# Entry
Amino acid sequence: MGFHQPVSVILPFAISLVSRPKLNRAPGYHFGVALMRPDGSIHILDNSRSSASALMTPIEFSRGYELTHHGWILDPARIHPAMIRLSMALGHRGPGSFDGLGWNCEHWARFVVEGESRSRQIRDVVAISAVAAACFCLSRSEE
# Structure
């Protein structure tokens, strides 16, 4: 596969949450963490087993889909804690660490960049499911 190097050699100038559509037209998005070096080069990490401790180029991460950067963080006072969280999060990858509801790619990337492990995708699915269940129950009670 393309360019890979250990994360420890990165000294980022900026950090960003990044996403692309899931593969095979599956609903939702795959999330990662983009690191921009002072020379302007960008490398991305995600929580997949196949890229453990490896950086990907934006082309490798995108897999042919359009990438969305969710705002670059340029403030060193916010980048330093994010890099500490990245170091912690790297320990939460690999077999047995992925949990679609509690520790998926979005939880992982948001934890690193924002400091909060959350997934808007899961929140939206739960909300839609709750509304559908309520509608179903109401329709059954009217019979």
